[in-house]
Design goal:
The protein is of the alpha+beta class and about 170 residues long. The protein is about 45% helix and about 20% strand. The protein has five helices and five strands. A hairpin with a 5-residue loop joins strand 3 and strand 4. The chain is globular and about 65 Å long. The termini are far apart.
């Protein structure tokens, strides 16, 4: 409404930011309900990937789990090449996902082609239970540091509910 007063503009901006945060939290809550709504543990990896992809508006999503020897393998993915083998996923695990697993710290990455990614460890009492990988293709809104907060909440919900036990 004209004339615009700085206080009114600031208040409107703060309300819009709060509304955006509340919408994101509601989306995360609804996502966790989808993951944990099934009584059985079959298909948990698929549900985690599907919900993470949808919630974070990613183009490619994968969940890597450690095998009996501690090597990462792709438990489920959406958007990765169909022919990707366990050996290839293990090699990937020795790269960025492996680094995130070792350092126990998430990363936001941007490549020269405009692709952006978040690689987030899933930890339970500092024990690695998985690595969640999300990517957006060039030409879409890139992931930002602030997106780590929302992926972190989703990761904590996954681990807190013990969703990956036996996945």
């Amino acid at each position: 409404v004209k004339p615009c007063v700085d206080v009114d503009l600031l208040s409107t901006g703060q309300r819009a930011a709060e509304h955006s945060r509340l919408r994101a939290v509601r989306t995360l809550y609804e996502a966790s309900q989808v993951i944990f709504s099934a009584r059985d543990r079959d298909g948990v990896a698929e549900r985690v990937v599907r919900v993470a992809k949808s919630t974070m508006n990613a183009d490619t999503t994968s969940l890597m789990l450690p095998d009996d020897h501690g090597r990462l393998y792709i438990a489920h993915s959406i958007g990765l090449p169909k022919g990707m083998t366990i050996e290839e996923s293990s090699q990937s695990g020795e790269r960025i996902s492996g680094r995130v697993a070792r350092e126990r710290a998430p990363l936001v990455l941007h490549d020269a082609d405009g692709r952006s990614s978040i690689v987030h460890p899933l930890l339970s009492a500092n024990r690695l239970v998985g690595v969640l990988n999300l990517s957006r293709r060039p030409g879409t809104r890139p992931f930002r540091q602030g997106d780590l907060h929302y992926v972190g909440i989703l990761a904590a919900q996954i681990v807190l509910e013990g969703a990956l036990a036996g996945a």
